[in-house]
Design brief:
The protein is of the alpha/beta class. The protein is 25% helix and 35% strand. Bound molecules: glutamine (GLN).
């Protein structure tokens, strides 16, 4: 059985674990550096990127995870997780850092504040419509040439990428783990199998 870690420092860890278990992979909570060993993939959940960043540093996971990303670990970041993987973050804290594993520029809370959270169908390439739950979601404002845009969404001001992939690293503005539709996670898991072939 494949082993997929869920970074379990803060955020909606349990929901991701639930999806992964429904999809028949072994979901393992990652709180310490040694728990990264031997994983086939990793999910970085939604939550609060400033808090996740702080806890990555205090837990000692910041550097080991940077190395794992450099070595090509299949990784899927949702919402705050996408922020953590991005190259550039605007409207962050002055000292906000991110891994730069996904060549995108994001704006924190770029779809509005908590009260402006919303749900809307998102058309995902090769999959069809999935429910998109956007909660203080990061807006992807720029994508690099090596980034594959798998889904866009128009919130009234033009299409913006909301699901992107660069090699083994995926990022999503919305929260597929908060709905019973597991197809976005399935796409990520399918891409892990591609890497093994
Ligand atoms: N706005 C949050 C942040 O900056 C992300 C929100 C979320 O993950 N639902 O981390």
């Amino acid at each position: 059985m494949r082993r997929v870690g869920v970074l379990a420092l803060q955020g909606d860890v349990r929901e991701h674990v639930g999806v992964l278990e429904r999809l028949n992979v072994r979901a393992e909570r990652v709180r310490r550096p040694n728990q990264l060993a031997g994983l086939d993939g990793l999910v970085i959940p939604g939550g609060e990127s400033t808090t996740i960043a702080y806890l990555l540093t205090t837990s000692g996971l910041r550097e080991p995870l940077a190395r794992a990303l450099e070595e090509g670990l299949s990784t899927f970041g949702t919402c705050a997780g996408l922020i953590m993987l991005s190259t550039s973050v605007s409207d962050g804290r002055a000292d906000q850092w991110s891994y730069g594993a996904l060549d995108v520029a994001v704006r924190r809370n770029g779809y509005g504040r908590q009260v402006a959270s919303f749900e809307a169908p998102v058309a995902v390439r090769g999959v069809g419509d999935v429910p998109g739950v956007f909660i203080r979601a990061p807006r992807i404002e720029e994508v690099g040439a090596d980034v594959d845009v798998v889904a866009t969404y128009d919130h009234g001001d033009g299409e913006h990428p909301v699901l992107v992939r660069q090699g083994p690293v995926w990022g999503c503005s919305f929260h597929p783990e908060l709905t019973p539709v597991d197809r976005v996670h399935q796409l990520f898991l399918d891409s892990m199998s591609e890497a093994l072939r």
